[in-house]
Amino acid sequence: MSRVHLTVALTGILLLSACSGGGDATGTTSEPPVAPSTPAATSPSPTATTIGCAPGGDGVPATAQAITTIDLDGDGADDQLWIDDDGAARTLGVTTASGATFTHPIDLAGPAGASAFALRPAATDPALVLLSDNRVADLLMVQDCGLVDVTDAEGKPWQFDQGFAGNGTGVGCVDITGDGEPDLVGLNDVDGSITRTQITLTGTVAAAGTTDTVTGGQDAADTAHAITCGTRTMQADGVHEAAA
Length: 244
Hints:
Elements: H1 3-19, H2 48-51, E1 65-69, E2 79-85, E3 90-95, E4 101-105, E5 115-119, E6 128-132, E7 136-142, E8 147-149, E9 159-161, E10 170-174, E11 183-190, E12 193-202, E13 205-215, H3 218-224, E14 228-229, E15 232-233, H4 234-237, E16 239-240
Antiparallel strand pairs: 1-2, 2-3, 3-4, 5-6, 5-16, 6-7, 7-8, 7-9, 10-11, 11-12, 12-13, 14-15
């Protein structure tokens, strides 16, 4: 319903209510309100953000490591994040409460195995998944009921360094822009001086944004060497590949 139609409808309802009040001093009565001729127009149509992804796929494999995680498809219900190795391929997967399953191949080769962590820095941000081998972390986005690679402007997969290449040490969610909403940031701790770099997303393309440098105690250093988002952490709230 357009704003104009909504205003007219509300005005009509208010006028009818005023005429039908039980405490009318004149003792007159009013005709009962007439039902709208198009009641369906007063309710929004269901969308993918309210009903979740359509059911499909094979669900969580029996051999997978799985964890209940945040709502990834926008229907308000927690979903499942899982990692599976069937001997032929390693797979990262999401199975939603609505019954949809979508996957992404794992090609990280770190000896520690793979871990995955779902996050949504701010309520209006897209759902993201970090896939890590404890050396680097690939950034994926949940888009159109699929797991899509986030890339840089040249089309290369966006990776956070976790101390392997000396460019970063962790990932977090921090309000670096001062707008009251957490931002996705890359963290780099160098002898207690922590550089925080905002990662902006335009569709599935990431870029470095605002940067600052802070200092802190041991807790800040520990956080700078981890993957976290608010009170949630990769260690406690992520899914981890089974040990070989």
